[in-house]
């Protein structure tokens, strides 16, 4: 293993910038063109295109595309009892937390009796993308379906790639049943995003698409944005650990590897004030890689996108972390609460030894769909609001318009918009000056 270790702050900052931009490059334009062609075919040919692309990319034609609802119930029934209990626990904790996110409508009475407000309403249809491929993700089902249900979405449609036998992963189907999803479509990739955006004979067009995926899924979401809403443009997963002398090397190693095992493009970064920890963690990683079932993926990610930085103090560590704006930030330090107060940019912060990032992935309660690739500077986690839209309410009475109308006319005239001004004059009998 050749994980990079740096002690120079400028070089560390440059390396962090390179890691954040690891999915950029000239290849992107070629992939965008391929995605655009896939989306155009789905829009034109509907289900036929979905079947053809599934055969081309997955080696099978999932006909029918829709999974029978009874298959979802059967998957839940067949789930081993310990797994069913774990899914129940995760479901209930996520549901409870997201219920607390529901925004309240706003109603204000102005100084002249005018009534102003903002009301929240759910979108009517939401599409959820659940990845397949290297691993199955029942947690993604819960983290996307539950906020949509809490928001009050009428119709949830889940798309997920079929496995080698033509069926989606059984645990994914069980999680869908537990989360109240009734419509599951056996299709993945950019073509699945196109189906949700444009609609086909089997797949209804939706208003919002959420859920992570590979590069093609992300580019497809980017391309259809505007036709539908999207949650975010998720990149490969990443964790940044800030640790001091109190951190345990084996725990730090496991936490870095927990991200690296996701994907060869996953990033795992340690920023520490302890030279001893920086020296001990690579050996701990090597020990845990032995007989690791995903060793090849984990090792590639650590070699390409792993980084250890030794800092003089935690203030410097926090500044470097904010420069990176990590998706997941772990604070394995003596006083995590104090350090958390210094952090400005992070998707989720995990405080202390007993809060490994894995609990956030599965059942802590807050959503695990988080901003990546530096977008935590301006974005946050998927939430109930992802599936809601707000509408402004404005109800002026005569007194309010009389009190403010002259100002409206003045502002409209300053912009050269005659009829804007006239719409007020007509009501108040104001003569044009």
Automatic annotation (TrEMBL):
Zn(2+) binds at residues 259, 262, 361, 420. Its cofactor is Zn(2+). It comes from Cyanobium gracile UHCC 0139. Keywords: Amino-acid biosynthesis, Histidine biosynthesis, Metal-binding, NAD, Oxidoreductase, Zinc. Binds 1 zinc ion per subunit. This is Histidinol dehydrogenase. Pathway: Amino-acid biosynthesis; L-histidine biosynthesis; L-histidine from 5-phospho-alpha-D-ribose 1-diphosphate: step 9/9. Its EC number is 1.1.1.23. Catalyzes the sequential NAD-dependent oxidations of L-histidinol to L-histidinaldehyde and then to L-histidine. Substrate binds at residues 237, 259, 262, 328, 361, 415, 420. Belongs to the histidinol dehydrogenase family. Pfam families: Histidinol_dh. InterPro entries: Ald_DH/histidinol_DH, Histidinol_DH_CS, Histidinol_DH_monofunct, Hstdl_DH. Gene3D superfamilies: 1.20.5.1300, Nitrogenase molybdenum iron protein domain. One of its GO terms (molecular function) is histidinol dehydrogenase activity. The gene is hisD. NAD(+) binds at residues 129, 191, 214. It catalyses: L-histidinol + 2 NAD(+) + H2O = L-histidine + 2 NADH + 3 H(+). The keyword Disulfide bond does not apply. It comes from the Bacteria. The active site is at 327 (proton acceptor), 328 (proton acceptor).
